[in-house]
Specification:
The chain has ten helices and 23 strands.
């Protein structure tokens, strides 16, 4: 009997157990799913009772047939062979099928002591849409992971008191050290800052119907415009950049450009305080506000820690999408006392979640920002197009 048939048949041999409880747990042994009896009511409670080990948590998409970044999730477990991964995929497909067409939330744990694999499954209930439309409140706590590169179940026990603070008013706890925000307790954290760009005394445009030229030298960033209004003319046939430098060497002046993607964003205040902001690639650039002294603040620098955190699977997608939307990525832990224009978190079960309040401080204008809204739309589209089949050979 083949592995797939054994897995599916053994799963269906316990219909009463499967369909009468909301959260189910199994041990994977010899290509069979063996039920684990428990009175635990949450995955975290059950995980604390199971042997210590590596784990990963994710949800299904496309009616229980796909998972975003499934290969990366399974890599966390350090399974001994490709055969082990194939067996686990078949088991996951069987469990997800039990909830279809609803989606499932799955947690896979591999015991450190003997390599036993456990799977926890429950029907997935998406967050209310108001969460994504209105944003959430989070709080900070002086707590970090001892071994952040490994997703170890011991952290669930270590952070139990902090997890107890999450409830109706508090969506997540941000882990901090020395005034720096590293990550969420069950998520990765990102802050969007405002880039201040000094105005230049004069800019001039050299453009015709066939060519747009953006030129900068070491002393001054100059973008083609007249003194009253910054205007950019581009033809679909050709756009040429005379100097690929994004930061001027002297004078502290910066041209906000992304040459790798064909985007050039004009962020200089012209005479009279008028600024036209353009993006040759999309025509989309979010201007936060114009400050005193001829400064223009543009929300496009995304700050997130790269060390001292668990590198989430959804984090990879979010950063890729952020670059695609024209954001710069600055790898460092945001400071608690920084003024954020926008903020959000990511996790495999929740996607991208906007943050509008951290402790008692409002983020930005206290509502979901435009850049975060863009990422939400991009992420939803990415999931549709790139989620992996749980069983690669399944139809």
């Amino acid at each position: 009997m083949g592995g797939e048939e054994v897995s599916r048949i053994s799963f269906r041999h316990t219909p009463d157990f499967v369909y009468t409880r909301r959260m189910l747990a199994f041990r994977l042994a010899a290509q069979r799913l063996i039920p684990v009896e428990t009175d635990a009511v949450t995955p975290d409670e059950l995980t604390r009772r199971l042997p210590r080990g590596l784990y990963s948590t994710f949800i299904t998409h496309h009616g229980g047939t796909r998972v975003l970044g499934l290969s990366a999730h399974l890599e966390r477990l350090n399974l001994p062979s490709a055969a082990s991964r194939a067996d686990l995929r078949r088991a996951l497909a069987s469990l997800a099928e039990s909830n279809a067409p609803r989606e499932s939330r799955l947690r896979v744990l591999r015991a450190e002591s003997d390599g036993t694999v456990f799977v926890i499954v429950q029907p997935f209930t998406p967050l209310p849409k108001e969460i994504y439309e209105q944003g959430v409140k989070v709080i900070t706590a002086e707590l970090i992971r001892h071994d952040p590169r490994v997703k170890d179940t011991s952290f669930i026990s270590e952070s139990q008191s902090a997890r107890a603070r999450v409830g109706a008013e508090i969506f997540e706890v941000l882990l901090t050290k020395d005034g720096k925000i590293y990550e969420g307790m069950t998520s990765n954290f990102y802050a969007l800052l405002k880039d201040s760009v000094p105005a230049v005394p004069q800019t001039s445009v050299c453009a015709d119907a066939l060519q747009t030229s953006v030129c900068a030298d070491a002393l001054q960033t100059s973008v083609c415009a007249d003194a009253l209004q910054t205007s950019v003319f581009a033809d679909a046939l050709q756009t040429s950049v005379c100097d690929s430098a994004c930061d001027s060497a002297a004078g502290g002046q910066t041209e906000v450009s992304d040459f790798a993607r064909g985007q050039t964003e004009v962020c200089d205040s012209a005479a009279g305080g008028q600024t036209e902001v353009s993006d040759f690639a999309r025509g989309q650039t979010e201007v936060c506000d114009s400050a005193a002294g001829g400064q223009t603040e543009v929300c496009r620098t995304l700050v997130t820690a790269r060390t001292g955190i668990l590198l989430g699977v959804t984090r990879r997608v979010a950063l890729r999408l952020a670059r695609g939307e024209g954001m710069r990525i600055e790898y460092r832990p945001p400071r608690v006392d920084e003024k954020f224009a926008e903020a959000f978190l990511t996790s495999s079960s929740r996607g991208i979640v906007p943050i509008v309040q951290i402790d008692d401080r409002t983020v930005g204008q206290g509502r979901v920002g435009k850049w975060t809204e863009r990422l939400l739309r991009a992420y939803d589209e990415y999931v549709i197009n790139h989620a992996e089949k749980i069983e690669p050979n399944a139809l």
